[in-house]
Design goal:
Elements lengths: L2 H13 L7 E2 L16 E6 L5 H17 L2 E6 L6 H14 L4 E4 L8 H9 L4 E4 L5 H6 L7 E4 L1 H10 L9 E7 L5 H15 L4 E8 L4 H14 L5 E4 L2 H14 L5 E3 L5 H8 L5 E4 L2 H16 L7 E4 L2 E4 H4 L2
Parallel strand pairs: 2-3, 2-4, 4-5, 5-6, 6-12, 7-8, 7-9, 9-10
Antiparallel strand pairs: 1-13, 11-13
Helix pairs in contact: 1-9, 2-11, 3-4, 6-7, 8-9
Length: about 325
Amino acid sequence: MRPFKLLLLVFALALSGCGDSEQAVQAVKTQPAQPAADKARIALVMKTLTNPFFIEMEKGARRAEKELGIKLIVKTAAQETSFEQQVTIVDDLIHSGSVDAIVIAPADAYHLVPSVKNALASKIPVVNIDARLDRKQLAEAGIEGLPFISVDNEQGGYLSAKTLLEGVREPAKAAILEGIRSAENAEARKRGALRAFAESPAVSIVASETANWKIDEGYDVTKAIFAKHPDITLIFAANDMMALGAIKYLADAGKSKVRVAGFDALAEARSLIGQGVLQATIDQQAAEQGYQGVLYAMRLIRGETLPAETLLSVKLVSAATSNQ
């Protein structure tokens, strides 16, 4: 497992924020950006910058800022579980009247729905990216057709977990590290993993616990799971941060035969795939989501009608796809 090298990788990730042959599940033709006639102010509100995924998302949004000639305002909460802080950020943007549109990557499916309603009532267009706001609550709030940009998270979870089953013939025990349970993308990835595991009669799922997208919780939850089920050999983590936490625990515990798969295609995860430590991850095009979110916001400012849902392709990243 190269524990020393892995330790450096994990701590480097914790202290710093974050091919061509990869498998695409669903492709979408992106809209070319057009220069804006008048400068606009667009806010990008994300969960946090402690996860490298959102650093990549901001990079894509900055690319759109440059191409469109707009002013991008980036706001984030302290942690991915800082639901109320994210609400406060959005409400402050609305009340200040300082932005012409808001792009939101919500921490969960529910907390921001009232804020979105207030934004729309204030004639501030909103684009939902990454994790979908709850459709039932949106409908109850009288919100229809809110543009949503993301990927097929269930399919991505399925593809990632499926790599763990290669060569499994004897009975094997599996665990799932879930994301925030009130987040739609977390539940979708879990559904995909469950579907993959169900296809193998040799695999039984003995634990499924949330680690809230976090590297430290990934470590602690994995440790607790193995205390109850020491013979687990397969772990699907719904994001790479939790996968890295799990891998750190496995290295510390000397468990070198446990196979782990993640989701997000962070640079550290790609490196561990090359070392044979991580089996797979999923590239959900974080930068493209940020880019398209800002582009869609500009189009709403111009009065254009947009599709209610735009899905970018997910790409499986594994040793097999890297060698194709």
